[in-house]
Specification:
The chain has 385 residues and is mostly beta strands. 12% of the residues lie in helices and 39% in strands.
Length: 385
């Protein structure tokens, strides 16, 4: 079966390469196109993190996601999960997204899935809701003729998992890592959308267990490689590891190799491939995240009530005064094995969301802008060459 996947890959040229094979991206300019509508019974939109976003049949889709509708998490607020599906088209002048009518909802509340767009639809693998993690895999299709979302089920993942990463190459879905019920995984799986009944196949394990990573592919020197970028790993009794590691998978030789590391550790970024280059948007460098983790651990170990309250007050202050996430855009050149920080920055940093290449525009919908705080904004980035 692995040989079958290699045969597919030896003949592919990703459409982004055809679009911009020899055009270097100089920069990107950003604007807020529109907002994600309110979910549930909210009067105003609080935004969503962990939402599904992608494109199919000239429609941009945002679905599911989470927020804290009552109060901030550090004040005891409970996370809410959603099943809404919002559909947009891009105006001809490409300045604004227009919301289309859609009454279909997801079959269950869902967030933190691995997501990828392809000709077949929007693949949504795993994720979680108030009942825990799921192994279910959905395929969302926009039926333009009937103006509605159609939802199909694909084969289940071997294990329920959330915060995995996914990319699709020539009808093959590749999924890596994620958080299972008991651990952070080093799994590497593949599903052939042309013959999904064969189910998910195991490929060589990742070099390290990871969640909240970015998985992208690119063609360099006439060879397709898949790149595993950054991410994190929770550690029992200690703060999480935030990775700066970058690995590439050689399909021909079926091995992972080490590439030039990120300029700094980064998790929960969004990423896309443009031509033969990879781009990462925002991400969590982990400083505030680590402070919070350490304070939570200290609170759990402290026996003295007054000292415990002091630590808890400090934790609330750290979370309430989160400085926000990175606004930087990183570019990776596979041919040079090098990272560059673009001059222009994002209007704000946002994590636990996806970057989607939609009609030659980059769209980033919602996401978390501070600890527990979401944005309803949908950013559109214009590519400057």
């Amino acid at each position: 079966m692995i040989k079958l996947y290699i045969a597919f890959l030896t003949t592919i040229i990703p459409f982004t390469v055809l679009m911009a094979q020899n055009q270097h991206v100089k920069n990107m300019s950003w604007s807020i196109s529109t907002n994600i509508p309110s979910s549930g019974h909210q009067l105003t939109s609080l935004g969503l993190a962990g939402a599904i976003s992608g494109c199919h049949n000239d429609a941009f889709i945002v679905a599911g996601g989470t927020n804290f509708p009552d109060k901030e998490p550090w004040m005891g607020g409970k996370k809410a999960y959603y099943d809404d599906v919002f559909v947009y088209c891009l105006e001809r002048n490409k300045e604004k997204l227009i919301r289309l009518n859609n009454k279909v909802k997801l079959p269950y509340q869902l967030a933190y899935s691995a997501v990828g767009s392809c000709n077949e639809g929007l693949v949504v693998a795993g994720g979680e809701n108030g009942n825990g993690k799921t192994k279910k895999v959905l395929l969302l299709k926009w039926q333009a003729k009937d103006s509605k979302i159609e939802i199909e089920y694909l084969p289940d993942l071997p294990k329920a998992s959330s915060n995995a990463a996914l990319t699709i190459i020539d009808h093959i879905v590749y999924l890596v890592g994620g958080e299972t019920e008991n651990e952070v995984s080093n799994q590497f799986l593949a599903l052939n959308l042309k013959d999904p009944n064969l189910g998910w196949k195991n490929l060589p394990k990742l070099p390290q267990p990871v969640s909240h990573a970015v998985l992208l592919s690119a063609v360099a020197k006439d060879k397709t490689e898949m790149f595993l970028i950054g991410g994190r790993k929770s550690n029992v009794g200690d703060t999480s590891t935030i990775y700066k590691n970058v690995y590439a998978f050689d399909f021909e030789n079926q091995v992972w190799s080490t590439k030039e590391s990120l300029p700094y550790p980064l998790a929960a970024s969004a990423g896309i491939t443009l031509g033969s280059e990879l781009f990462l948007f925002s991400g969590d460098k982990g400083e505030t995240f680590h402070q919070t983790e350490q304070l939570i651990a200290d609170i759990a170990q402290e026996k003295d009530y007054l000292k415990k309250e002091i630590l808890n007050t400090k934790k609330v202050w750290v979370q309430a005064n989160h400085p926000g996430f990175s606004k930087e855009i990183l570019r990776y050149s596979p041919s040079n094995n090098s990272w560059t920080i673009l001059k222009n920055i994002l209007p704000y940093g946002t994590v636990t969301t996806q970057a989607v290449l939609f009609q030659n525009e980059i769209i980033i919908a919602g996401g978390e802008v501070k600890a527990g705080v979401r944005t309803p904004n949908i950013l559109v980035g214009k590519i400057v060459r």
